Amino acid sequence: MKASDKSRVIATCAYRSCPWRVRASLCPDGHSFEVRKVYSTHSCPGVNRAGNKQATISWVANEIKDVVKKNPDITPKDISNNLETTYGLSLPYMKIWRSRELARDIMFGSVDENYMWVPTLRLELLNRNPGSHITYMCDKKSNAFQRMFVSFKVCIEGFIVGCRYLIGVDACHLKSKYLGVLLSANCLDANNGLYTLAYAVAEAESKKSWEWFMRNLSESFGCEVPHLAFISDMEKGLGEAIKLIFPNAEHRVCMRHLWKNIKKLFRCEDGHILRNLVWTAANTYKLNDFHMKIEEIYKINPQIYNYLGSLSCKWSKATFSKYIKNHYNTNNMSESFNAWVEEARSKPVVDLVDMIRAMLMEQRSQRKQNSSTWKGLLVPHVEDYIRDITTRKEQFIIRLSTSVRAEVEGLNERHEVDIEKKECTCGLWQLSGLPCIHGAAFIGTTQNNLWHSYVDDHYYTYRYVT
What's the superkingdom here (predicted)? Predict the structure, then answer.
């Protein structure tokens, strides 16, 4: 306060060089004051830098709740920018952080209270989805929530009837107050769409949590699934869990993560030749070619050769089971799931579980509606594939051995094709269940070129819509 008496009030900014100033004089009524002069622009850092006492946490939370509702993960920095633009406020970081947490509680309910609704949610989901496998686990000592597993009966039935049996398993981090991880099991349907079998919230990624997840997944199936395969990113404890719960299942490792691990362990960032050899060995369908590339790797780097030989999981297409009818060696399905549920990962456990449930049901409904318009015997993805391989410009020479066997020679390769057994020495047909380009060249010369008869029945429309 610069000056004050019965007839006037003069106030200036506490910051010495700031020009802000206001002058008020007593009005004729003898009670009121009227502002006569004001210079309203501050050039100082501002008194709000220390935190405006009137801008309490509850007031800020109420002001930002709509913004937090639209974007629960908004950063304190972005909130600070909004407050400074709108109100000229510049508040301490922790005050803004606490305000954001309070705003989340106002809009979505308390995170702590959210855990209390887990038993209720489980019962409600089971009532709506009879026969589903939904369970949760609490800490034996503190009785605090620890894990929750969800697998809907309709999803498992769809997997058993209409999907190829390669399951991608993965974990991603949650972003709510108590963090934790989201475990998931996904596969691809006949039309190469993401298909989720199960998901779970757990306290951390460990051998115990993975074993618990895989055991519940096994119980969800309700029967032994023949010729089952898993693909993963070499998560901690997952390999042991798969071997324990599914001892007869094939375990593949995602090649992208395997190569990343090789670079980290052996410091071969600039190993362009080595990288090409490893990836070529991973993507070949023929065992002879695979062994040739492995020997070349040994000559360049025996350590990597020994490392690859020590892996308990499979990483080359040449070694994959022919019964799965899926030749993929990357875990893209899990990456797609993690990106798909990005928004849900910031929610408290009950909201997260129910939000993913709603997304799955909406996805299922949309796909059922789309598939009702399909007219062909094969799913659209396979029809597009066949159209592609039959319209390529490659030239092949077909030398018949019998009516169902032939030698197919291209510019740089020669293969034996048996269209009755659905086999080609290139290996693709047996592994994927889809005719390779050599098989397609032979089929195109026969009188019986009904393409669906050369495709594995996992790709038939009737299995997709069942």
Answer: Eukaryota
As a dihedral over the C-alpha atoms of residue 361, residue 363, residue 366, residue 370, rounded to 10 degrees, the angle is -130
| pLDDT for position 75 | 86
Rounded Cα distance, 291 and 313, in Å: 17
Tens of pLDDT, residue by residue over 184-238, are 999 999 999 999 999 999 999 999 999 999 999 999 998 889 899 999 998 888 9
436 shares a domain with 363: no
Whether residues 225 and 347 share a domain: the answer is yes
Reading the block at residue 305, the tokens are: 């050769």
Q: Are 461 and 376 in contact (CB under 8 A)?
A: yes
Residues 221 and 365 in one domain: yes
3-state secondary structure of 81: helix
Contact 154, 210 (CB under 8 A): no
Q: Judge if 65 and 29 occupy the same domain.
A: no
Terminal Cα distance for the chain, rounded: 80
Q: Could you give the CA distance from residue 207 to residue 173 in angstroms, rounded to a whole number?
A: 16
Co-location of 81 and 124 in the same domain: no
Other CB atoms closer than 10 Å to residue 382's CB: what's the count?
25
Q: CA-CA distance, 132 to 154, in Å (whole number)?
A: 8
Range of the domain at 394: 380-465
On whether the CB atoms of residues 229 and 324 are closer than 8 A, the answer is yes
Q: Which tokens sit at 169?
A: 């398993």
302 and 160 fall within a common domain: no
